[in-house]
Amino acid sequence: MRFELLLPRSLPEALEMKKTHGEKAKVLAGGTDLLVLLKDRKLKAEVVMSLSGIRDLNFIRAEKGRGVTLGALATHSSVAASPVIRRQFPDLAEACFQVSCVQIQNLGTVGGNLCNASPAADAAPPLLLADAILILASTRGERRVSIHDFFLAPRQTVLQPDEILKEIFIPEVSGRRGATYLKLGRRRAMEIAIVGVGVAVHLNGSDQVASKCRIALGSVAPTPLRARKAEGILTGQEITDQLIEEAAEVAAKEASPISDIRGGAEYRLDMIRVLCRRAARAALARAQGKQVEV
Ligand SMILES: Cc1cc2nc3c(=O)[nH]c(=O)nc-3n(C[C@H](O)[C@H](O)[C@H](O)COP(=O)(O)OP(=O)(O)OC[C@H]3O[C@@H](n4cnc5c(N)ncnc54)[C@H](O)[C@@H]3O)c2cc1C
Question: I need a surface site. Which of 15, 75, 190, 293 has the fewest CB within 10 A?
Answer without folding.
Answer: 293
